[in-house]
Amino acid sequence: MASMKLGSKTDGFHRDGNTWYCTTGLPSDVTIEVGEMTFNLHKFPLLSRSGLLEKLIEELSIEDGSVCVLKLNDMPAGAKAFELIARFCYGIKIEMTSLNVVSLRCAAEYLRMTEDYGEGNLIVQAEAFLDEVFGSWTDSIKALETCEEVLPYAEEIHIVPRCIDSLAMKACADPNVFNLPVAGQTDAQSQRDVILWNGISSSANKPQPISDDWWFQDVSFLNLPLYKRLILAVESRGMKPETISASLIYYAKRYLPLMSRQSSFDHANNGNPWATVSIPSETDQRVLLEEIVTLLPKKKGVTSPEFLIMLLRTAMVLHASPSCIENLEKKAGAQLDQAVLVDLLIPNVGYSVETLYDIDCAQRMLDHFMSLNQDAALSTPPCIVEEGQFLGGPDTLQPLTMVASLVDGFLAEVAPDVNLKPSKFETLAATIPDYARPLDDGVYHAIDVYLKVIQL
């Protein structure tokens, strides 16, 4: 982790409960209250570094020599940041790191610690260190996470967009070229022994290519607003929609417990980072899911129907907005030819549950698929040569025949449900045109099962 030490003197501060003292031997002439903490300090070191403190001390100067009391209730990062700044004003060593530089930079802006109040003041030094931070993926992540503590100060001085731009640039770069860090990889693993042969250096152990998902785990620690901005930033930089979709899947599975239960997503190689994640409230989960849906790439085929239907199931349980559910149904319906039977078996979670599985949802997805594919199929009507074969238009009919098989399997699965109304069974079966079924065995089997059930 990057760090930089400022100042030169040894520490002259000590704390007693909620009170800080500077042990210079001189009596304190200014008391500064930051939240519940009190700092007994001296005017000159402070006003020689801070424009705000100079102004406040002058306004509250008391001629009788009593102690001046200031309240800094709006101090960014509170007493923790002010303690370091007080040490800096006294010339005492402080260590600036990627974890505190954002709060120090915001606090320095608040206190107006410009070059007008001493060369090498805190704003300049913090900015110089931020430039180093932005050169590192790991440090940029840490800095961006700490921005959450000092919003909107970090927004006002453009630290947040600079962090996001730094991360987006690195996420879009080739990690194999720029030697970017890989989540979960230790320094020892990333270092390679070098051997020389004819003056040419080469890796003793040839490094394995780094996959496109190397940054997913790191950014999944960001809160939703910051993560969303990062996704929009990498999208604007031209990142492949497949990679964006994969990151969204990773993020969704991290914070939506229902998504993890529905999948066999393997976290073993990542040290199971989900184990320590606190579960968001149902309201927060609903907001997150709806945002994820808006961020999904629009390009067809980029996001698998399996994941789309997983999102759809979760959206129904969380009572997401009707527009969100409709969006997911259309996205999944457009790729229904890539789905498998288990995807369509969506448990019915409506208020008036009639059937075990949500027949209406399956019908809506099927209707959307047909609206996108029927015109193309009908433009080259097939001529049946013999059962199971077509003459003309095989390519255009392939998606229809795949969905026909899927629907027939679905009908057979839901046929034993005594609450399934004949009208819904018939509508679902008839949505697929007869010529799209090379074989009728599947639908006949489903009809046979259903007729036996309703005759009971």
Automatic annotation (TrEMBL):
Pathway it belongs to? Protein modification; protein ubiquitination
Recorded hits in InterPro entries, A to Z, give: BTB/POZ_dom, NPH3/RPT2-like, NPH3_dom, SKP1/BTB/POZ_sf
Signal sequence coordinates: none
Give every NPH3 domain span: 213-456
Q: Which residues form the BTB domain?
A: 28-98
Question: Keyword set for this entry?
Answer: Ubl conjugation pathway
The record's Gene3D superfamilies line, in alphabetical order, gives:
Potassium Channel Kv1.1, Chain A
Task: Give the family this protein belongs to, as stated in its UniProt record.
Answer: Belongs to the NPH3 family.
Q: What name does this protein carry?
A: Phototropic-responsive NPH3 family protein
* UniProt organism field: Populus deltoides
